[in-house]
## 1
Amino acid sequence: MLARVHSCALVGLEGAVVEVEADLNPRALPQVTLVGLPDAAVKESTERVRAAIVNSGLMYPRGRLTVNLAPADLKKEGPAYDLPIAAALLALGGQLPADLDGTLFVGELSLDGSVRHVNGILPMAHLARQLGYKSFFVPVADAPEAALIEGIDVYPVETLARLVTHFRDYHPIEPCRATLDVDADPPAYAADFQDIKGQEHVKRALEVAAAGGHNVLMAGPPGSGKTLLARSLPSILPRLSLPEALDVTRIYSVADMLPADTPLVRQRPFRAPHHTISHAGLVGGGHWPRPGEISLAHRGVLFLDELPEFGQHTLEVLRQPLEDKTVTISRAQGSLTFPANFMLVGSMNP
């Protein structure tokens, strides 16, 4: 007995389709084998899935189960494969349709069967639309974010039992719709340029820098307003267009830094890392690279307060991103490119 379900993985800022194959041998002793280069979080999903199925009042398949996450050469990370694995096991027992082509599943399962938030939903939804998928089943908390991508039906799944009732037509789930009002005013910035009194020559210089996208270095004694001026700079930058907003939202979605009630980033980013930050934290990195501060500041402002306190090596790694507006991070598994188009603002004492 064999069932196939499609899910999605993250490779940098892009999605990659993962095929979840589940095979059942009812004559063998009960055992679950998970293959396909999973990390520790994915290996633990077998226990979460079993408890979620049983606690949802559904039937867990009996026998030897083999679950394969293809392609096998792509490393699988995180708990986002709980829902597709559960869907494949339920399809084996006839509790879900055997034909689930054109449908994508992503979500983490609790032991009681509820579906939890996962990061990186926006690039996954973008990939699903590109490849022609019709339906995308995601956690309720992530549905508004996925619905930003038009051309695909996004179904918010609250519990595993709710997913089964949807496919049995007992209680269909209504697709989530997002309204993209680009003309609506974005939320107010923490510091507004118009509220700053005095320092007219500095304000004029920042206006010129904002108009031309230039980098700025401010030197002055402590308490003269350098930090406040830098924090207010995003408020005079041009409003984010819809493609720019989606571009920034994609980065924050992968970094799992989107606020729960904000599916779309409407403000220009402002990042102010401490001078003790490592170069990997600044440009991105890790065993499997994640976006750094310069990518989180994409289409916004990167503020380096007390610039001379930053290490020489940390500042040198900014040279190439400032010129190319992108940063490429190479690891043994491959190379990833992140966007890094930002305004650099530094401040220092005389």
## 2
Amino acid sequence: MNEKTKNVDEEKRGFGMAIFVLLSFLLMKPAYGQSDLISLLELAENNYPLIAARQAEAEAAQASVALEKSTLLPSLDAAYQANYSTYNNITGMSYPGQLLPISGPPTTENFNNPVPGSAVSLLLKWAPLTFGQRTASVEYNRKLYEKQLAGLEDEVLRLKFRVAFIYLEIASTKELIEVYRKNIERNEFNLTQIHSLVAAGLRPGVDSLKFRGELSKARTELYQLENLQETQKLELRELLVSDEVRDINLNSFFVENLPDKPADPSGLPGNPALRMAQYELEANQARLTQISRSWTPKLELWGTTYARGSGILHDGTVDKAEGWSFSRYNYGVGLQLAFPILDIPKVKLQTNRQEAIVRSSESYLRQTQIALSKEENIALNNLETSLRVAGEVPVEYEAAESAFRALQTRYTAGLTDYSDLIQAQYDLLRAEAGLKNTWISSWKSLLKLAVIRGDVNLFLNQIQN
């Protein structure tokens, strides 16, 4: 094989390998970093069953509004009736339904012979004027629809909070795993040093056993953290309702950057739970108006046209064939005004009941405002405290690290004992873990504040890869 052919084959193999790597990358499930948190939130919103349930409830409420508006349209009913009844009744035979046929002449005698009769009709009913009843009913259902929309937003906001909070929990656990791995490295280094000191007779052999136990304990704590991280990822996948998330790739952003404090003015009107309480009050007020107008008159326009046939002729003779065909045609229009006089006491009781419900809704709205205001103040205080603490913990960490290095040197030189060194190592571990947790806690506080104000973007807009 000449050199040119060999180079061509190598290029083909290289090209094939590149295609294989590209296809493998495309088929891999995606991994997400900080900037992809928005994608995770959208994935959860699109897949979570409870969000779909709230969406369906809102659509049902919207349909109720359209249904109430449709009562402005007239109704038109068509009916056909055929009967075979006694001679006595054919003149006034009636079944439950649309028709009251007028057929045949009256009779002075009692005849039980069956005679056919038939009728067909169109009946128009229209109530263009309801004295405010329809308007109140439409308004009531519109407020229920707005409440359902706010409930949908509230459910979405709660879901986003849970996803973002677990996301921060995963970031926190990841940082703690790194801290405990460093602690294991320190234990392994100490154990190696002590083996040499024990062999040289500078340290008692029990120190070697103690450090071996500390190393085992550190590994156990690491295993527990790794298990916690896997549990958190499973919880996240449950909220996402998707197996497409292969992993969460996080760098050290949350422990290297602190969030900025949002503006002080309250953003509570953006909280959907508060809007739900407001719409609940407005819906109950609309229902009160609806009840108070239920006793007003009802004005209806009626129109009908019908044809009938009777097996009894005008002179009383029977011709059954005539009963199956139409021989008389009629029409009529009219207005009907109905006033429910005896319903007034019942409406009064219903009004009293609904007024109590309105007062309850007003109190509930006020309580919701108070509770959210308290939660906002707590979240602000937590964020401010986290930011202040985050400014102090680096000093504690640096002091703990310097103390550990110094005691490690003194221990090697035989100037201190095991208990002082291991205590310094614990202090360093606690300070480093506290450093990581405090910084991420400040992001959790910002997240809680954003959710209370009803705008998760207050949190998302500060996150970068």
## 3
Amino acid sequence: MKKMKILVIGASGLLAGPVIRKLDEKGFELRLFSRSVNPSMFINEYDIVQGDLFNQDDLQKAMTGCSAVHISISTNDDVAATGIIVNMAREKGIRLISMVSGCTVSEEYRWFKFIDEKFRAEQLIMQSGIPYFIFRPTWFFESLEMMVRNGKATILGHQTELYHWVAADDLGKMVANAYSIEGAENRIYYVYGPERYGMKEMLEKYISKLHPEIEKVSVAPIPVLKIMAFLTRNRTLKYAASLFGYFEKVKEPVIPEQELSRLGKAEIDFETWVKSKITEA
């Protein structure tokens, strides 16, 4: 596939960095866009535009001169954000658009607001008339640090399901491969790592390597968290309780191996990933 200039929307986010690195390694020209993105976040120099995607002038400035758009965002209104991006993409003659979604996004689970937003955002892209890639990753190793706060490691709810935990670098590799392979367009790609762990077991392994001062992983019951969120009017806690309550009920989809390997299988296991984090530290 001919190399193109790709606009990465949400470039300062947790999952954008590895995508940017892998696209750069493939030789793509990049423009990075978010409200807080700045050159100090990256080793290499990039074309950077700071702005708000809900501001038409900012988005137009960012998209002008690009051939493709990669969306790596999480907002309170993914549908509105994606709609604005798709409309501008049509206006600017964008040739490819990609999006990071989630592995449980489906019609079946639209009863949960977060999933409904992602599902509807996916539909906007698929119905846009622009060739697309949609990536549905499972849980990332990088999310484990969010479960460590104030010297404590805590799981919200009784999480019993197993997940193919994946490294953000493997997502980046798959995104870059999709943009490099002819005929990869107009598909949904699941991003699963090579090993399966329960959430509590995964967090225990994580703290043993990176937070050895923490002796155990605690479990906070969802009903108690919801009461606390209501009494304190803590929206962040309310959202977290709802999200983990959802994952108490929903399983990671079973995806055939052949489908998982279309863009090259995710290869980074936990030990490899955590060694890289220890080296960085």
## 4
Amino acid sequence: MSEGSIKCDVAVIGGGIAGMIAALRAAQGNKRVLVFEKTADERYVCNSRLTGGIWHCCQMDIQSDPTVLAETIHTITGGQARRDLARVVAKDGIRVVRWMQSVGIRFIKGPYDYQSFMLSPPTITPQGRQWEGRGGDVMLRQFESELGKLGSKVLRGHAAKRLTRGGEAVNGFEGERADGSTFQVEAASVVIADGGFQANPGLTRGPITPAPEKVFQRNARTGMGDGMRMAQEVGAAISDLRGFYGHVLSKDAFHTDKLWPYAWLDFVLAAGIVVRTSGRRFADEGLGGVHLANEIALLDDPSDAIVIADQKIWDERGTFNLLPPNPRLPEGGGTMHVAATLKELAAKAGINAAALEEDVARYNAAVAAKATKSMVPGRSVHKFEAYPIAKAPFYAFPACAGITYTMGGIVIDSSCRVLDGAERPIAGLYAAGCATGGLEGGAMKGYVGGLVKSSVTGLRAGEHIVGQLND
């Protein structure tokens, strides 16, 4: 049963960071804004509430030269990133942080050079998801408080279902409440900010993986791609949908909550190798954990991946980073096979022993000769040093791809207006955050940064709506 129309100046679909920034920035411009969040809980769980909270651009400091940052975006995406989006994300990363500070969001400096801005209090915790009262949770509550002071609000349990049009312009949408009743929204501007499509197997099957059930949902499990679907229905262009941000986790994360979102195996595999139960390598480990997570997801059987290391790698790279797998992975119940020889290790881990010994010998010889690039598959060393696998005991970690958010989505311009197939803006319709595409992902699965992308596009959408965008 419908209860009539809800009227506002700006309707924002999704209450994560991109939606809340767009809403608050528009409200600061004297617009009456309503945020429509499909989850009914007071502290609705979304990726923004679970975030590690580190603002960076391509794992570089957002205070770096914007020209350098923009070129780095193009390099890591193989030139596929839209130049207008790369330019504004590189330029406005620091500006959006300063704006967030002006509305009460607190940051601290992280332990590494590129982590000049990390949400406070830190969300990154030793075991499992401990987000209440921490960075992302505090941030969203602060945004909502500021929104309320300006006469706007968040409506929980309100899911958008279909965009509506008046002539050529989008003028609202139809939706459904958590209790099953329907509603209609009338608004001069609609912002789609409901995140990626990572939790929708119907959409991830193909561009992300042939077997979605074997890719671990390292996220809030609410990103279903509804906004992308609705935008397509009114003629929006959709980017290349390949590529996601995520990490390589213990396969035991599927049944042990202590093993996600941390600890990653990224730095262990980047020093050693990853094989299938056939004993053979299948990807370039030197490109790091995000790349390997994508490559594992693309296997015909994404559950068939095992990280191989030796004692030196486990001692040095296994203890690197904020929450390293050594010792947190075995402490959290993750499977770790240890053996004095590769043959014994293969027997414990269910790997073809002869093939594993052969691949390790080939790999070690290439490392010694500094010829890893000529291997098949090649092993790059420009990002991570290749360690020989030589010091017993040897380690095997059954692994899985953990997906955090998808990188492809709705095509937008630098003002965050949704574009159609002819690159024309669809009047009244904006998109921000991980619902959008054209910056990250593609054939290279290039990772820029979900927080900088979401916050910058949210800010720019709000500013364009109120006519305060300067470029």
